[in-house]
């Protein structure tokens, strides 16, 4: 059982390289300790956390990035651990990588450069060989071609708008598009009502969806069958979105002309016509800073005030923090939880100044600000009393 954390230095552990500017968010009252086996919060990028045991003090995990498939979300929710990500913070980096790869693949740039570097002649021989050999690498222009964008979130929407600027036609599919994205999307992006419509019409397809049970292997023999011959597929989302055995056959037959992927593995490296990129989509100084700072600020605010912004497993909830005592409780989303928490507070003759209660699926989060000056002697006993309520997952007094 955790104890009151008000006076305790809060420990932050990182499982991947996190930009210094993000770590600098943690100043007084925080310590970065990568050897800790019981931190208050973890900052992570792609490290696979599925086999990790969590310590009792762990309250938050922040993914400095978008995809959270490396984090056991259900286990975190059951243990009252908030998981954050950093929506949009690396979207521009990925957009630029998608455009760069699409252009480079279309112009056979990687093969051409690799071939040039193999030339072992000297002096005037080099330009001669270059002029004679360049016909092997004749490419095609993207202008006037159709790009299919699967997933119009932070990245997909940027890619769609930029592809229009490059003279492409764009068709996109996203059954869950957000209002914010819709406001920022060019009206010239055609909406596919079914993904099959996109697959049937695109010369290039780029995918920007999370890896979930629904999206796993969405590129497979059946969907390749709908696509145009020689389609180029760009995957900067997750390797598992593609059935690799089917991709190998599609590349062999020429149905897929090129597969550009940020997720190389042994199978991918054995396939023909792949462009394996070493997971560089978000690897820019700017993106790493954006993600680290956003992740760190979200964790810091949550540990200090209980406010939750950009969680992927708990509801977002905020109350202006005025420095008085705050009860923050995760609990089952069942009747009378708020009533029981407020009864526990009033049993100590304490008055309530403000409160918020938000639910998400089977769980909910309640923050209650206490109006009185509270004698610190009673805080452990109040915290324990709240923790005893059936349905409470975790509770803190901040
Ligand atoms: N290569 C990299 O370095 C890198 C960097 C950032 C993100 N990513 C990957 O890209 C993914 C997308 O990132 P984002 O920032 O755009 O996320 P996002 O959450 O902003 O957008 C995802 C979009 O996918 C849509 N979607 C979900 N299921 C769908 C489906 N079945 N069909 C069509 N659309 C669907 C959602 O409605 C949402 O609009 C991440 O989940 C992550 O896996 C990779
Ligand atoms: O941290 C990275 O470099 C990759 C991040 C990316 O895969 C993401 O999902 O945001």
Automatic annotation (TrEMBL):
Catalytic activity as recorded in UniProt: (2R)-3-phosphoglycerate + NAD(+) = 3-phosphooxypyruvate + NADH + H(+); (R)-2-hydroxyglutarate + NAD(+) = 2-oxoglutarate + NADH + H(+)
Keyword Lipoprotein appears in the UniProt entry: no
One matching Pfam family: 2-Hacid_dh_C
Family matches, as InterPro entries: ACT-like_dom_sf, ACT_dom, D-isomer_2_OHA_DH_cat_dom, D-isomer_DH_CS, D-isomer_DH_CS1, D-isomer_DH_NAD-bd, NAD(P)-bd_dom_sf
Functional pathway: Amino-acid biosynthesis; L-serine biosynthesis; L-serine from 3-phospho-D-glycerate: step 1/3
Keywords assigned by UniProt, alphabetized: NAD, Oxidoreductase
PANTHER family: FORMATE DEHYDROGENASE 1, HYDROXYPYRUVATE REDUCTASE
Membership in a protein family: Belongs to the D-isomer specific 2-hydroxyacid dehydrogenase family.
Protein name as catalogued: D-3-phosphoglycerate dehydrogenase
Organism, as annotated: Ectobacillus funiculus
């Amino acid at each position: 059982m955790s104890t009151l954390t008000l006076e305790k230095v809060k420990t932050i552990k990182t499982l991947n390289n996190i930009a210094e500017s993000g770590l600098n968010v943690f100043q007084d009252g925080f310590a970065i300790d990568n050897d800790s086996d019981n931190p208050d919060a973890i900052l992570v990028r792609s490290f696979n956390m599925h086999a990790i045991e969590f310590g009792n003090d762990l309250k938050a995990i922040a993914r400095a990035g978008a995809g959270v498939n490396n984090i056991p979300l259900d286990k975190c929710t059951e243990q009252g651990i908030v998981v954050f990500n950093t929506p949009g913070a690396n979207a521009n980096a990925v957009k630029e990588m998608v455009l760069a790869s699409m252009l480079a693949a279309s112009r056979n740039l990687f093969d051409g450069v690799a071939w040039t570097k193999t030339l072992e002649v000297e002096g005037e021989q080099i330009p001669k060989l270059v002029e004679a050999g360049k016909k092997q690498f004749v490419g095609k222009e993207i202008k006037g071609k159709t790009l299919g964008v699967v997933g119009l979130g932070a990245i997909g929407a940027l890619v769609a708008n930029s592809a229009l600027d490059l003279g492409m036609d764009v068709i996109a599919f996203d059954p869950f598009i957000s209002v914010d994205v819709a406001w920022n999307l060019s009206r010239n992006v055609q909406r596919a009502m079914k993904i099959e419509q996109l697959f049937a019409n695109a010369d290039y397809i780029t995918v920007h969806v999370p890896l979930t049970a629904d999206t796993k292997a969405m590129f497979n023999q059946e969907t390749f069958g709908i696509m145009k011959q020689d389609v180029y597929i760009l995957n900067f989302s997750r390797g598992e979105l593609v059935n690799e055995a089917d991709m190998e056959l599609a590349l062999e037959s020429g149905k897929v002309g090129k597969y550009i992927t940020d997720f190389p593995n042994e199978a991918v490296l054995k396939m023909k016509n792949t462009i394996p990129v070493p997971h560089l989509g978000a690897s820019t100084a700017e993106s790493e800073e954006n993600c680290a700072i956003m992740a760190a600020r979200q964790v810091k605010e949550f540990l200090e005030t209980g406010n939750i912004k950009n969680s992927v497993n708990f509801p977002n909830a905020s109350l202006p923090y005025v420095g008085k005592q705050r009860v923050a409780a995760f609990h089952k989303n069942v009747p009378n939880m708020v009533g029981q928490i407020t009864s526990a507070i009033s049993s100590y003759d304490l008055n309530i100044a403000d409160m918020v209660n938000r639910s998400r699926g089977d769980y909910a989060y309640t923050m209650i600000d206490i109006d009185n000056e509270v004698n610190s002697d009673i805080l452990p006993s109040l915290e324990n009393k709240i923790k005893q309520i059936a349905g409470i997952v975790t509770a803190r007094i901040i």
